[in-house]
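Predict the 3D structure for this chain.
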Amino acid sequence: MKTAEINHVFRTLEKASPSFAVSPLRQTALLDWDQILGEPFGETTQVLGNFYRKRVNQALDEIEAYKGEIPRFWKLYSSGFIIRSSEKTIAVDINGGCTPPNGRTTVILNNSQIRRIADLTDEYYNTHSHEDHISGELCDALARRKKLMVMPQEAIYRWVVKGAVAAENFNAENTKVFMNWQGDVNGGLPCAMYLFTLNNNRNIFVRGDIYHDEGFLSCIEHVKKWGKSVDYAFLTPYYKGSIVPVETLYNEFKCRFVPIHEWEFSHRKLGNSGPATQCFEELYGAFALPYKKNSAQFLAWGESILLD
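Done. Predicted structure below.
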């Protein structure tokens, strides 16, 4: 893994800023990014760790400076993202970077970045308690700043989060919550589906990880029960059953998509090559229907897109 190769990919991406449109130039660059990230032991190199922190710093600088009326979305690691509008800054499923239990990775946030995220965030939402969706250090920093944190009760217990509000008991005018589970119909981990209504009245659908038919259909039913629609969906394409979430959401709401949970290194055995969870090549296939309709885009670390 060479710095020059990584920089070449991101210089190409800069020539095609993210928008909800088909972009062969971006697709070529992201497929090249797949090849670089797919190298064995890449997540243990200082080259990749330093580059990740550089991209996070660039995103945080942009978030801090952004004063636009139109909400903007920034992609960080895996499922983590931040939305900033003129009204507030929302962080969802931000974790500490690639942090498996054995600590074998360099792709992690430093303490300064955790403090900056806590300072910038007005509201933090967590879908479920898996380590690639939450950071105990960030939660501590948010608690010290008395920021709103919402997460399933199980996550509060598991991570000993002080000051958090249980998602099971949370309901605000512009944030709706439906609790089901991450896993299959026979049980699994409590998982929250959030529907955020932003200051421009766009509705944002967010849910972590794997879907099963019953749980996913219940999500759709609750959106309709609330008298809402879906304008943007941030989700993984993983599912168990016969109902394909991406196609179902698109056919129901004609919404736009940004995939999450790609290249989660904690799901790849150390030393293996190839994808860690889905790679961008897989995402271009899984989101082909909305992408060809100019309703999906794929973001690398630190990239952002307007939610107009």
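The chain has one domain: 3-262+276-294+301-306.
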